[in-house]
Design a protein that fits this description.
alpha/beta; 8-stranded parallel beta barrel; 6-stranded mixed beta sheet; elongated
Length: about 425
């Protein structure tokens, strides 16, 4: 699987006229979108399904004006409602590898919609088959008889979808959720990693094949105060997709990652998030959801915002894939003999030992640093073509340009020590490095 970067189009592309939003998403560099069926069948629509006649006159007129309940009353119309969006994606060569089925709001009072949700999920599976989509996010049911009965309530529901999913080569992904308790958000279904892993394993065992996986929502992990490194570690390769969104730890929002900051500190534990996914070798789908941030921006600025969101997602992908990139090569050397090289050797020196390191400082050539001989850049010309050069210096582009101008044709990769499994907390100053 390739770690494709996708965009959640909600708040960026209108369902009826998706052209501009989808073109902006494609132009920014995103490889695809999350097809969100909630765009045509919202939790509000489901909450008032069949009871619009009991609403006050004003709400009844608003519901009629917005053509409410169309898809919830006629699930077979789900695909047709999303067709303009999907056709525009096809025109812009955007992938549609994952879909999210309609879902109830977390504080729903509707305990009578299980059959409706199952029908909507089945229609979502058929749509996935039609558009070549391999994953469908289906939220667990909220238990009607109290906390602790979630597995009993959801098991039958998920297994009723398994046959259709297998026939259509679609994997159903569970997702971590929070729930409301006296107006506060607390941990809900599948927010305990061991519980989520057990659910997936039991469902796959009962289905007889690997039909179920997991979608990890970073925003929910943050809201629930979870150790995301541990969460990812426990779920391991069950995680097929990840939703990238930031929140302040109190309210559920979809902010651009790294933007929820309190006193100079990120409200979301991105360090633990990246460490965890890197350690399990995650190579699934990255879904950028920044609809809350987008809603605060003028339409005039949206294209620039979407491009920046792509840059943020690409950075996160780079950090997560750092260890996977190291694994690609049997032989490697480093360029740089400073703090970044030092942290490389601390974390990966034993598992991925370099042949040597280079540095532009000729006064250090011939010295040994962290067990590596420091050689001049010219020595890189003697490397075999399959040996990768990992730049351990913040002047990545300048050094890469230098090496290419020297005639180095082999693979050049960037290494970064911002999200390492561990660090040297004392940093060497330039004069300390020079005198070693």
């Amino acid at each position: 699987m390739s770690m494709n970067i996708l965009c959640a189009p909600s708040g960026l592309a209108a369902l009826e006229r998706p052209q501009k939003g989808i073109i902006d998403i494609a132009s920014a560099g995103f490889e695809g979108i999350l097809v969100d069926a909630a765009m045509c069948c919202s939790d509000h629509e489901l909450e008032f399904l069949g009871i619009c006649q009991n609403l006050p006159q004003k709400n009844r007129e608003e519901s009629k004006h917005r053509n409410r309940a169309k898809v919830s009353e006629h699930p077979e119309e789900l695909y047709n409602n999303l067709k303009p969006l999907l056709e525009q994606c096809k025109k812009e060569h955007l992938l549609t590898p994952i879909t999210r089925a309609p879902f109830l709001r977390r504080n729903t009072k509707r305990g009578d919609l299980k059959s409706v949700l199952a029908r909507l999920a089945e229609e979502s599976i058929h749509m996935c088959s039609e558009i070549g989509c391999g994953y469908l996010i289906v939220n667990p049911l909220f238990a009607e008889i109290g906390r602790g009965e979630e597995w009993k309530a959801s098991r039958e529901y998920y297994l009723s979808l398994a046959g259709t999913a297998l026939e259509n080569n679609v994997m159903i992904l569970l997702q971590n959720q929070c729930r409301e308790l006296h107006g506060r958000l607390v941990r809900g279904n599948c927010t305990e990693a061991e519980e989520a892993a057990a659910w997936i394993d039991r469902l796959n065992a009962e289905a007889g094949r690997e039909c179920f996986g997991f979608c990890m929502d970073a925003g929910i992990c943050s809201l629930c105060g979870q150790d995301m490194r541990e969460f990812a570690s426990v779920l391991g390769n069950r995680i097929k997709a990840v939703i990238l969104r930031d929140c302040d730890g109190h309210y559920e929002t979809a902010m651009l990652p790294f933007t929820c900051v309190n006193r100079g500190q990120s409200a979301t534990d991105w360090l633990g998030f990246i460490r965890g996914l890197r350690e399990i070798g995650f190579d699934g789908l990255l879904i950028m959801d920044f609809s809350t941030t987008a809603s605060a921006f003028s339409q005039f600025l949206r294209p620039q915002l979407i491009r920046f969101a792509w840059d943020v997602a690409e950075f996160i992908k780079w950090q997560i894939s750092m260890k996977n990139v190291l694994k690609k090569y049997d032989k490697r050397v480093l360029f740089g003999a400073g703090n970044m090289c030092r942290n490389y050797m601390k974390c990966y020196g034993d598992e991925f030992p370099p042949l040597f390191t280079c540095d532009n400082n000729k006064d250090r050539w011939g010295e040994w640093f962290e067990g590596l001989e420091i050689k001049p850049p010219e020595s890189l010309k003697l490397l075999p073509p399959d040996c990768a050069i990992f730049i351990c210096n913040i002047y990545y582009r300048e050094i890469e340009q230098q090496l290419r101008e020297m005639g180095i044709a082999g693979p050049i990769e960037y290494f970064n020590d911002e999200y390492m499994p561990s660090y040297y907390f004392d940093r060497l100053e330039y004069w300390e490095v020079s005198e070693q």
